[in-house]
Protein backbone atom coordinates (compact mmCIF):
# COMPACT_ATOMS: atom_id res chain seq x y z
CA UNK A 1 0.00 0.00 0.00
CA UNK A 2 1.05 3.55 -0.53
CA UNK A 3 2.71 5.55 2.21
CA UNK A 4 -0.35 7.77 2.49
CA UNK A 5 -2.19 4.99 4.25
CA UNK A 6 -0.24 6.29 7.23
CA UNK A 7 -0.07 3.30 9.48
CA UNK A 8 1.83 3.25 12.69
CA UNK A 9 2.07 -0.50 12.26
CA UNK A 10 0.57 -3.40 10.40
CA UNK A 11 1.09 -6.68 12.15
CA UNK A 12 -0.05 -10.05 10.83
CA UNK A 13 -1.41 -12.20 13.62
CA UNK A 14 -2.71 -15.67 12.81
CA UNK A 15 -3.81 -14.64 9.35
CA UNK A 16 -5.42 -11.36 10.49
CA UNK A 17 -4.13 -7.83 10.06
CA UNK A 18 -4.27 -5.23 12.80
CA UNK A 19 -3.81 -1.67 11.60
CA UNK A 20 -3.04 1.32 13.79
CA UNK A 21 -3.68 4.74 12.15
CA UNK A 22 -1.51 7.68 13.14
CA UNK A 23 -2.11 11.42 13.22
CA UNK A 24 -1.49 13.79 10.35
CA UNK A 25 -0.74 17.52 10.81
CA UNK A 26 -3.62 19.99 10.76
CA UNK A 27 -2.69 21.36 7.34
CA UNK A 28 -2.76 17.91 5.72
CA UNK A 29 -5.30 17.48 2.96
CA UNK A 30 -5.59 15.02 0.12
CA UNK A 31 -7.43 15.28 -3.16
CA UNK A 32 -10.83 13.64 -3.03
CA UNK A 33 -10.83 10.13 -4.45
CA UNK A 34 -14.62 10.06 -4.43
CA UNK A 35 -16.46 8.96 -7.54
CA UNK A 36 -19.97 9.28 -6.08
CA UNK A 37 -22.10 12.04 -4.48
CA UNK A 38 -19.92 14.52 -2.55
CA UNK A 39 -21.02 17.31 -0.21
CA UNK A 40 -19.22 19.77 2.05
CA UNK A 41 -18.74 19.46 5.79
CA UNK A 42 -21.95 20.99 7.23
CA UNK A 43 -21.59 24.02 9.46
CA UNK A 44 -23.68 22.45 12.21
CA UNK A 45 -21.22 19.54 12.33
CA UNK A 46 -18.39 22.02 12.89
CA UNK A 47 -20.43 23.78 15.57
CA UNK A 48 -21.24 20.56 17.40
CA UNK A 49 -17.62 19.44 17.39
CA UNK A 50 -16.42 22.84 18.62
CA UNK A 51 -18.63 22.53 21.71
CA UNK A 52 -16.64 19.58 23.02
CA UNK A 53 -13.08 20.12 21.84
CA UNK A 54 -9.90 19.31 23.74
CA UNK A 55 -6.81 21.29 22.84
CA UNK A 56 -3.59 19.42 23.51
CA UNK A 57 0.00 20.44 23.95
CA UNK A 58 2.85 19.62 21.63
CA UNK A 59 4.03 16.94 24.08
CA UNK A 60 0.79 14.97 24.19
CA UNK A 61 -1.78 13.24 22.02
CA UNK A 62 -5.47 12.87 22.94
CA UNK A 63 -7.88 10.74 20.92
CA UNK A 64 -11.52 9.81 21.55
CA UNK A 65 -11.50 6.12 20.60
CA UNK A 66 -14.97 4.88 21.63
CA UNK A 67 -18.36 6.07 22.91
CA UNK A 68 -21.68 4.70 24.05
CA UNK A 69 -24.84 5.07 21.96
CA UNK A 70 -25.68 8.49 23.47
CA UNK A 71 -22.12 9.82 23.23
CA UNK A 72 -22.22 10.87 26.90
CA UNK A 73 -19.71 8.20 27.93
CA UNK A 74 -16.45 8.12 26.02
CA UNK A 75 -13.16 6.28 26.09
CA UNK A 76 -10.17 8.55 25.60
CA UNK A 77 -6.61 7.54 24.84
CA UNK A 78 -3.93 9.98 26.01
CA UNK A 79 -0.20 9.75 25.39
CA UNK A 80 2.20 11.99 27.29
CA UNK A 81 5.66 11.53 28.81
CA UNK A 82 5.95 8.05 27.22
CA UNK A 83 2.81 6.81 28.99
CA UNK A 84 -0.33 5.88 27.06
CA UNK A 85 -3.48 5.77 29.15
CA UNK A 86 -6.99 4.58 28.29
CA UNK A 87 -9.64 6.35 30.38
CA UNK A 88 -13.43 6.14 30.58
CA UNK A 89 -15.05 9.55 30.98
CA UNK A 90 -18.58 10.67 31.70
CA UNK A 91 -20.14 13.66 33.41
CA UNK A 92 -19.31 12.33 36.88
CA UNK A 93 -16.03 10.46 36.70
CA UNK A 94 -12.73 9.76 35.04
CA UNK A 95 -11.74 6.11 35.41
CA UNK A 96 -8.51 4.60 34.18
CA UNK A 97 -8.86 1.34 32.27
CA UNK A 98 -5.19 0.64 31.57
CA UNK A 99 -1.87 2.40 31.05
CA UNK A 100 1.16 1.21 29.09
CA UNK A 101 4.69 2.58 29.09
CA UNK A 102 7.40 3.60 26.63
CA UNK A 103 6.90 2.14 23.13
CA UNK A 104 3.99 -0.11 24.10
CA UNK A 105 0.84 0.41 22.03
CA UNK A 106 -2.83 0.32 23.00
CA UNK A 107 -5.36 0.09 20.16
CA UNK A 108 -8.52 -1.57 18.70
CA UNK A 109 -10.74 -0.10 21.44
CA UNK A 110 -14.43 -1.11 21.20
CA UNK A 111 -17.31 -0.36 23.58
CA UNK A 112 -20.89 -1.62 23.76
CA UNK A 113 -21.96 0.70 26.58
CA UNK A 114 -20.79 -1.64 29.31
CA UNK A 115 -17.96 -3.83 28.08
CA UNK A 116 -14.71 -2.48 26.66
CA UNK A 117 -12.33 -4.57 24.57
CA UNK A 118 -8.88 -3.42 23.48
CA UNK A 119 -5.48 -4.78 22.52
CA UNK A 120 -1.89 -4.02 23.44
CA UNK A 121 1.56 -4.91 22.24
CA UNK A 122 5.00 -4.01 23.51
CA UNK A 123 6.13 -2.00 20.50
CA UNK A 124 5.55 -1.27 16.81
CA UNK A 125 7.68 -4.23 15.72
CA UNK A 126 6.28 -6.65 18.30
CA UNK A 127 4.22 -9.39 16.64
CA UNK A 128 2.56 -10.49 19.88
CA UNK A 129 -0.83 -8.95 20.66
CA UNK A 130 -2.83 -9.29 23.87
CA UNK A 131 -6.56 -8.54 23.90
CA UNK A 132 -8.43 -7.58 27.07
CA UNK A 133 -12.01 -7.06 28.22
CA UNK A 134 -13.07 -4.63 30.95
CA UNK A 135 -16.43 -4.20 32.63
CA UNK A 136 -17.28 -0.50 33.04
CA UNK A 137 -19.83 -1.35 35.75
CA UNK A 138 -17.17 -2.72 38.05
CA UNK A 139 -13.88 -1.36 39.32
CA UNK A 140 -11.87 -4.46 38.50
CA UNK A 141 -8.82 -4.89 36.32
CA UNK A 142 -9.04 -5.75 32.61
CA UNK A 143 -9.10 -9.48 31.88
CA UNK A 144 -7.10 -11.09 29.09
CA UNK A 145 -9.40 -12.86 26.62
CA UNK A 146 -7.25 -13.54 23.56
CA UNK A 147 -4.44 -12.57 21.22
CA UNK A 148 -6.32 -10.94 18.35
CA UNK A 149 -8.33 -7.71 18.16
CA UNK A 150 -11.98 -8.16 19.14
CA UNK A 151 -15.33 -6.56 18.41
CA UNK A 152 -17.99 -6.34 21.14
CA UNK A 153 -21.78 -6.19 21.11
CA UNK A 154 -24.41 -6.80 23.83
CA UNK A 155 -21.99 -8.43 26.23
CA UNK A 156 -20.25 -10.69 23.73
CA UNK A 157 -16.87 -10.35 22.08
CA UNK A 158 -15.83 -11.90 18.80
CA UNK A 159 -12.43 -12.33 17.17
CA UNK A 160 -10.54 -14.71 14.92
CA UNK A 161 -7.20 -16.46 15.28
CA UNK A 162 -5.52 -19.65 14.12
CA UNK A 163 -8.11 -21.74 15.96
CA UNK A 164 -11.09 -20.14 14.22
CA UNK A 165 -13.77 -17.54 14.87
CA UNK A 166 -14.45 -17.06 18.58
CA UNK A 167 -17.58 -15.79 20.32
CA UNK A 168 -16.96 -15.04 23.99
CA UNK A 169 -19.68 -14.41 26.59
CA UNK A 170 -18.05 -11.73 28.73
CA UNK A 171 -20.27 -12.14 31.80
CA UNK A 172 -20.09 -15.94 31.81
CA UNK A 173 -16.45 -16.01 30.65
CA UNK A 174 -17.35 -18.70 28.15
CA UNK A 175 -15.62 -19.04 24.79
CA UNK A 176 -16.77 -21.06 21.80
CA UNK A 177 -15.49 -21.45 18.25
CA UNK A 178 -18.18 -21.15 15.59
CA UNK A 179 -16.26 -21.54 12.33
CA UNK A 180 -13.12 -20.82 10.34
CA UNK A 181 -12.38 -17.43 8.82
CA UNK A 182 -11.58 -13.85 9.82
CA UNK A 183 -13.05 -10.44 10.68
CA UNK A 184 -16.19 -11.42 12.61
CA UNK A 185 -18.95 -8.80 12.96
CA UNK A 186 -22.24 -8.80 14.84
CA UNK A 187 -25.57 -8.48 13.06
CA UNK A 188 -28.17 -8.49 15.78
CA UNK A 189 -27.32 -11.48 17.97
CA UNK A 190 -25.82 -13.34 15.01
CA UNK A 191 -22.16 -13.32 14.05
CA UNK A 192 -20.96 -13.06 10.45
CA UNK A 193 -17.38 -13.47 9.30
CA UNK A 194 -15.30 -13.59 6.13
CA UNK A 195 -13.97 -16.74 4.53
CA UNK A 196 -12.59 -17.10 1.01
CA UNK A 197 -13.96 -13.70 0.00
CA UNK A 198 -17.53 -14.39 1.12
CA UNK A 199 -19.69 -13.86 4.18
CA UNK A 200 -20.28 -16.88 6.40
CA UNK A 201 -22.60 -17.35 9.36
CA UNK A 202 -23.20 -19.91 12.06
CA UNK A 203 -26.85 -20.12 11.01
CA UNK A 204 -28.55 -19.05 7.82
CA UNK A 205 -26.84 -16.20 5.99
CA UNK A 206 -29.26 -13.45 4.88
CA UNK A 207 -29.98 -13.96 1.20
CA UNK A 208 -29.00 -10.36 0.43
CA UNK A 209 -25.42 -11.12 1.51
CA UNK A 210 -24.89 -14.35 -0.43
CA UNK A 211 -23.60 -12.59 -3.55
CA UNK A 212 -21.35 -10.13 -1.71
CA UNK A 213 -17.60 -10.36 -2.21
CA UNK A 214 -16.29 -8.44 0.79
CA UNK A 215 -12.71 -7.29 1.10
CA UNK A 216 -13.19 -6.12 4.69
CA UNK A 217 -16.32 -5.69 6.80
CA UNK A 218 -17.69 -3.83 9.80
CA UNK A 219 -21.02 -3.56 11.62
CA UNK A 220 -22.76 -1.70 14.43
CA UNK A 221 -25.05 -4.66 15.14
CA UNK A 222 -27.80 -3.31 12.88
CA UNK A 223 -26.05 -2.51 9.60
CA UNK A 224 -23.23 -4.47 8.01
CA UNK A 225 -20.90 -2.53 5.71
CA UNK A 226 -18.14 -3.91 3.51
CA UNK A 227 -15.66 -2.92 0.84
CA UNK A 228 -15.94 -4.54 -2.56
CA UNK A 229 -13.45 -3.41 -5.16
CA UNK A 230 -13.55 0.39 -5.28
CA UNK A 231 -16.97 0.66 -3.63
CA UNK A 232 -18.48 0.64 -0.17
CA UNK A 233 -21.61 -1.49 0.24
CA UNK A 234 -24.12 -1.99 3.05
CA UNK A 235 -27.17 -3.93 4.11
CA UNK A 236 -29.54 -3.92 7.07
CA UNK A 237 -32.66 -5.90 7.88
CA UNK A 238 -35.64 -4.54 5.98
CA UNK A 239 -33.69 -3.77 2.82
CA UNK A 240 -34.64 -5.98 -0.12
CA UNK A 241 -31.08 -5.90 -1.39
CA UNK A 242 -27.62 -4.61 -0.56
CA UNK A 243 -26.84 -1.03 -1.55
CA UNK A 244 -23.76 0.69 -2.89
CA UNK A 245 -23.04 3.51 -0.45
CA UNK A 246 -20.01 5.20 -1.99
CA UNK A 247 -17.45 4.68 -4.73
CA UNK A 248 -13.91 5.91 -5.21
CA UNK A 249 -11.78 6.43 -8.27
CA UNK A 250 -9.68 3.41 -9.28
CA UNK A 251 -5.93 3.18 -8.73
CA UNK A 252 -6.02 4.82 -5.31
CA UNK A 253 -5.09 3.20 -2.01
CA UNK A 254 -8.61 1.78 -1.76
CA UNK A 255 -11.14 2.10 1.04
CA UNK A 256 -9.71 1.34 4.49
CA UNK A 257 -10.86 1.48 8.12
CA UNK A 258 -14.64 1.57 7.53
CA UNK A 259 -16.83 2.07 10.61
CA UNK A 260 -20.61 2.29 10.80
CA UNK A 261 -22.88 3.77 13.46
CA UNK A 262 -26.56 4.35 12.85
CA UNK A 263 -26.97 6.11 9.51
CA UNK A 264 -23.35 7.19 9.15
CA UNK A 265 -20.30 5.35 7.83
CA UNK A 266 -16.79 6.72 8.26
CA UNK A 267 -13.91 5.47 6.14
CA UNK A 268 -10.56 6.48 4.75
CA UNK A 269 -8.91 6.71 1.37
CA UNK A 270 -5.84 8.94 1.70
CA UNK A 271 -8.00 11.23 3.88
CA UNK A 272 -11.24 10.77 5.82
CA UNK A 273 -14.82 10.52 4.58
CA UNK A 274 -18.27 10.19 6.18
CA UNK A 275 -21.18 8.74 4.18
CA UNK A 276 -24.85 9.23 5.07
CA UNK A 277 -26.66 5.96 4.32
CA UNK A 278 -30.00 7.77 3.97
CA UNK A 279 -29.01 10.16 1.19
CA UNK A 280 -26.04 8.39 -0.35
CA UNK A 281 -24.00 11.58 0.07
CA UNK A 282 -20.41 11.57 1.30
CA UNK A 283 -18.52 14.34 3.05
CA UNK A 284 -14.77 14.61 2.37
CA UNK A 285 -12.64 16.45 4.90
CA UNK A 286 -10.81 19.01 2.81
CA UNK A 287 -10.18 21.28 5.79
CA UNK A 288 -7.17 20.72 7.98
CA UNK A 289 -7.74 19.20 11.41
CA UNK A 290 -10.90 17.29 10.48
CA UNK A 291 -10.04 13.61 10.60
CA UNK A 292 -13.45 12.14 11.35
CA UNK A 293 -14.66 8.73 12.54
CA UNK A 294 -17.88 7.35 14.02
CA UNK A 295 -17.71 5.50 17.31
CA UNK A 296 -20.90 4.33 19.00
CA UNK A 297 -23.23 7.31 19.08
CA UNK A 298 -20.46 9.83 18.45
CA UNK A 299 -18.68 11.55 15.63
CA UNK A 300 -15.07 12.01 16.70
CA UNK A 301 -12.52 14.45 15.35
CA UNK A 302 -8.81 13.76 15.38
CA UNK A 303 -6.23 16.27 14.30
CA UNK A 304 -2.91 17.74 15.14
CA UNK A 305 -3.20 18.84 18.80
CA UNK A 306 -7.00 18.67 18.85
CA UNK A 307 -9.66 16.10 19.71
CA UNK A 308 -13.42 16.56 19.71
CA UNK A 309 -16.65 14.58 19.91
CA UNK A 310 -20.26 15.30 18.90
CA UNK A 311 -23.40 13.17 19.31
CA UNK A 312 -24.56 11.74 15.99
CA UNK A 313 -28.15 12.45 17.02
CA UNK A 314 -27.39 16.19 16.90
CA UNK A 315 -26.00 16.19 13.36
CA UNK A 316 -28.00 17.18 10.32
CA UNK A 317 -28.33 14.60 7.51
CA UNK A 318 -26.05 15.05 4.52
CA UNK A 319 -28.00 16.45 1.60
CA UNK A 320 -28.59 14.47 -1.57
CA UNK A 321 -26.70 15.57 -4.66
For the structure shown, list the relevant keywords.
Methylamine Dehydrogenase, Chain H, five-stranded mixed beta sheet, 321 residues, signal, four-stranded antiparallel beta sheet, mainly beta
Q: Could you describe the 3D structure shown?
A:
With 321 residues, the protein is mainly beta. It has a single domain (3-314), classed as YVTN repeat-like/Quinoprotein amine dehydrogenase (Methylamine Dehydrogenase, Chain H). The protein has 1 helix and 30 strands. The protein has one helix spanning 43-50; strands at residues 7-13, 16-21, 38-39, 53-55, 60-67, 74-80, 83-89, 94-101, 105-111, 115-121, 130-135, 143-146, 151-153, 156-161, 164-169, 174-179, 182-187, 190-195, 198-201, 217-219, 223-228, 231-236, 243-247, 256-261, 264-268, 272-276, 282-284, 291-295, 298-303, 306-311. It has a 5-stranded mixed sheet, with no helix packed on it. A 4-stranded antiparallel sheet has the order 4-30-29-28, with helices on one face. Strands 5-6-7-8 form a 4-stranded antiparallel sheet, with no helix packed on it. β9 and β10 (115-121) form a beta hairpin. The longest helix is centred in the first third of the chain and has 8 residues, at 43-50. It is globular, with a radius of gyration of 19 Å.
- What is the share of helical residues? under 10%
Task: Give the tally of structural domains.
Answer: 1
Give the mean pLDDT.
88
Biggest β-sheet description: 5 strands, mixed
In the predicted model, the low-confidence regions spanning at least 5 consecutive residues are 1-23
Please identify, by name, the CATH architecture.
Answer: 7 Propeller
Fourth CATH level, the homologous superfamily:
YVTN repeat-like/Quinoprotein amine dehydrogenase
Quickly give the structural class. mainly beta
Distance N terminus to C terminus? Answer: 31 Å
Radius of gyration: 19 Å
Spatial ordering of strands, largest sheet: 3-27-26-25-24
What is the CATH C level class, in words? Mainly Beta
Strand elements, count: 30
Amino acid sequence: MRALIALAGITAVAGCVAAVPIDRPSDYTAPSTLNSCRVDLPQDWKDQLSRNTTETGSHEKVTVVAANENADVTLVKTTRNRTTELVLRDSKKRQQVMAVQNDAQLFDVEFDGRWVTFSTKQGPSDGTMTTYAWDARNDGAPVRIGESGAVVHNGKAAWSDGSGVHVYDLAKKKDRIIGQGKEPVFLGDAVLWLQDGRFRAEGALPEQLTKARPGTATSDGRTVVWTQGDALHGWREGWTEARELAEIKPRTEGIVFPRVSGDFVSWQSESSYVTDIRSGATMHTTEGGYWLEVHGGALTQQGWRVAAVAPLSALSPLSRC
